[in-house]
Design goal:
- The complex is a heterodimer of chains A (329) and B (359).
- Chain A is 37% helix and 22% strand.
- Chain A has 329 residues and is of the alpha/beta class.
- Chain A folds into two domains: 184 residues, Thiamin diphosphate (ThDP)-binding fold, Pyr/PP domains (Rossmann fold, 3-Layer(aba) Sandwich), CATH 3.40.50; 129 residues, Rossmann fold (3-Layer(aba) Sandwich).
- In chain A, helix 1 runs parallel beside helix 8 and helix 3 runs parallel beside helix 5.
- Chain B is an alpha/beta fold.
- Chain B folds into two domains: 319 residues, 3-Layer(aba) Sandwich (Rossmann fold); 31 residues, no CATH class.
- Chain B has a six-stranded parallel sheet, with helices on both faces.
- The radius of gyration of chain B is 21 Å and the shape is globular.
- The chains are: A alpha/beta (329), B alpha/beta (359).
- The interface between A and B is medium-sized, with 33 and 35 residues.
Chain lengths: 329, 359
């Protein structure tokens, strides 16, 4: 086994940014408060001092403006990494992302590539209230022309950025806001880049496929531990890439376990969980021993008070309860 | 060469940082010293309120809070110029304007404590808008309110406030542009406090002033010393009068300084120098008006002490009322979503209540 070291998710993102800036002169970072402030989640702290204002660019306060400029710079031969402070603010840039980045290759008959990487924090759990706690990843996963990835582990936070930068299409990276201070293992040296095509089985199991991504992965793994004590053996699948979905891994797992529980912090109606459930129903219906279940967020604006925020979002005990229900225990 | 158009931006100031007049033509309202004392008292109580809010946050009794330290002249100047029937569409730190309009400190505490019932104002006009945490969206809502006033032939004005950072947003330009194109009674105040979190004013725009953005939209535009309440109030009075009489909207840039952090979640020492902040304190708006009032024999140290004690007592009362407010039950998160809850959500509501009881 190769050597590893422990770093935080935040450090992993920072190292990945630094590596990209060192390796590729076309790479630059821009967004709100990425320079002096070091990023709202401190992912870029220290980079301004090391790389200077040309490559670590604080921008005017306009998401549409700096995402649009990032798209333009990508078309113009650069490899911009655009940090949108959070997914909530990315709504201001939706026209640029959905109507421009995702369509320009098509609209130009293949003349224009948009190799931009857009990073944003997502999700609830930090008591930031309704307007700062959205989990809208599925909106992006809905859009052809975009690749959407969600690093749920430290190694993926370290490795997905470089892979995303090699992609000739726009990539949106979702970093769940509750992960930044978590610690985990990354390779001690050498190549960090990871594949962003396949989902990962984070825990092998025989009784039930627990399918999730991003900030919900750790909850799903904790639930799987609890359930193991009740002799329910969960397989935990981390989607990693939300578009395109790695159907093969999902379906193979469900065909082994015959039960599927999807954990998705998004709202249930029109969710990614709904899409996954539909694909399982379409392609593995006769392999199922029970109906597919979902644990999603309550369909309300995410509340601010902790007790209500917790009640509104997937938690370990709600996942455990749903799994028990699925096993009819 | 022919010139298509020429413009200039007036800078308005009456009091220098020491509270000494820099011009003679003081506006009429400044003759009413009782009123000027009222304005000063509200600036002081706003500051006492602000200090209390930060203390509450630091002791874990309040969530993230956006301080208004240093903005008192701008905010009270805005609020005091408006009529009750006008609409205020604030961003999230204009407490001085809101307190003037009757918002209670306990309501502000509730809001920043994570309880949206704080936006259900008991004394302030119900038609005033809620705090707008998204940056700049309130400007378009204010333009819409102004449009409604115009359509209904009402002599009311919509006032929105935004920061220097927010003025880079498309929503801001969209709002002032439609106000100019349709001659709407809108007054947009850019409270330029020099810092959008860590991003300084120079990075927001290459324009010399933020006020001149109003010219591009066909509005009146003026820059004022935002730490001089007389200047803010005069510009507001003029702008409101013009808007009320159908002569068009105005962009006012109130130049001030954010003496505190962006919010309690921020630490401004990370990106700006102590020397800069220290220098900004020499332009403190509260000190300035106090010096002027004292020169007019309308205020003194004894009054200052008495009023501060009164403010402390008032805020203690407000804090107690806030802390005594009962937390909302779990079903509250469904209860303000639709006028009537759809069946599928009613089911989720029942499930949430059942889960809560199960614990």
């Amino acid at each position: 086994m190769s050597a590893t070291r422990r770093i935080t998710y935040r450090e992993a993102v920072r190292e990945a940014l630094r590596e990209a800036l060192l390796r590729d002169p076309r790479v630059f970072l821009m967004g709100e408060d990425v320079g002096r402030y070091g990023g709202a989640y401190a992912c870029s702290s220290g980079l301004l001092a090391e790389f200077g204002e040309e490559r670590i660019r604080d921008t005017p306060l306009s998401e549409s403006a700096f995402v649009g400029a990032g798209i333009g710079a990508a078309i113009g031969g650069m490899r911009p990494i655009v940090e949108v402070m959070t997914i909530n603010f990315s709504l201001l840039a939706l026209d640029q992302i959905v109507n421009n980045a995702a369509t320009l290759r098509h609209m130009s008959g293949g003349q224009i590539a948009v190799p931009v990487v857009i990073r944003m924090a997502t999700g609830a759990g930090r008591q930031l209230a309704a307007q700062h706690s959205h989990s809208l990843e599925c909106w992006y996963a809905h859009v052809p022309g975009i690749r959407a990835v969600a690093p749920a582990t430290i190694a993926d936070a370290r490795g997905m950025l470089w892979t995303a930068l090699q992609e000739p299409n726009p990539v949106v990276i979702f970093e769940h806001a509750t992960l930044y201070s978590d610690e985990g293992e990354v390779p001690a040296g050498g190549e960090f880049a990871v594949d962003i095509d396949r989902a990962a089985i984070r825990r092998a199991g025989a009784d039930l496929s627990l399918i999730t991504y991003g900030g919900s992965l750790k909850k799903a793994l904790a639930a799987a531990e609890t359930l193991a004590g009740e002799r329910i053996d969960c397989e935990v699948i981390d989607l990693r890439t939300l578009r395109p979905l790695d159907e093969e891994t999902l379906l193979a797992s469900v065909r082994r376990t015959h039960r599927a529980l999807i954990v998705d912090e998004g709202w249930r109606s029109g969710s990614l969980a709904g899409e996954i459930a539909a694909r399982i129903a379409e392609q593995a219906f006769f392999d199922l021993d029970a109906p597919v279940r979902r644990v999603c967020s309550a369909e309300v604006p995410i509340p601010y008070p902790r007790h209500l925020e917790e009640a509104a979002t997937p938690q370990v005990d709600t996942i455990v309860a749903a799994a028990r229900g699925l096993m009819r225990r | 060469m022919s010139i298509a158009a020429t413009f200039e931006i007036e800078y308005l100031q009456y009091l220098d940082p020491e509270g000494k007049p820099v011009r003679k033509d003081f506006p009429e309202f400044t003759r009413d010293l009782d009123h000027m004392v009222e304005l000063y008292k509200l600036m002081v109580s706003t500051r006492v309120f602000d200090t209390k809010s930060i203390a509450l946050q630091r002791t874990g009794k309040l969530g993230t809070y956006a301080s208004c330290l240093g903005h008192e002249a701008a905010h009270v100047g805005i609020g005091s110029a408006m009529r009750r029937e006008d609409v205020l569409a604030p961003s999230y730190r204009e407490y001085g304007a809101q307190l003037y309009r009757g918002v209670q400190p306990r309501e502000v505490y509730l809001y920043w404590g994570g309880d949206e019932r704080g936006n259900d104002f008991q004394n302030a006009p119900k038609h005033d808008f809620a705090w707008s945490v998204p940056i700049g969206t309130q400007c378009l809502h204010a333009a819409g309110a102004a449009l409604a006033f115009k359509i209904r032939g009402e002599q009311r004005v919509a006032v929105c406030t935004i920061g220097d950072g927010g003025s880079s947003k498309g929503d801001f330009y969209g709002a002032i542009n439609i106000a100019g194109a349709q001659n709407l009674p809108l007054v947009a105040v850019i409270v330029n406090n020099q810092w959008a979190i860590s991003v300084p004013r120079r990075i927001q725009t290459g324009a010399k002033t933020l006020a001149q953005k109003g010219l591009a939209a066909g509005l009146f535009a003026i820059q004022v010393d935002g730490n001089d309440i007389i200047a803010v109030r005069k510009a507001m009075d003029d702008a409101l009068a013009r808007a009320r009489s159908g002569q068009g909207g105005t962009v006012i840039e109130a130049v001030t300084y954010r003496l505190g952090d962006h919010t309690t979640a921020d630490d401004a020492r990370r990106y700006r120098s102590e020397a800069e902040v220290k220098e900004a304190w020499t332009r403190d708006p509260v000190k300035r008006l106090r010096a002027w009032l004292e020169s007019k024999k309308a205020w003194d140290a004894k009054k200052e002490e008495a009023w501060k004690a009164e403010c402390e007592a008032w805020m203690d009362e407000e804090v107690n009322a806030y802390l005594k407010t009962r937390a909302q039950p779990v079903e509250a998160m469904f209860d303000y979503l639709y006028a009537e809850l759809p069946a599928d959500l009613a089911q989720q509501r029942e499930q949430a209540i059942a889960l809560e009881r199960g614990h």
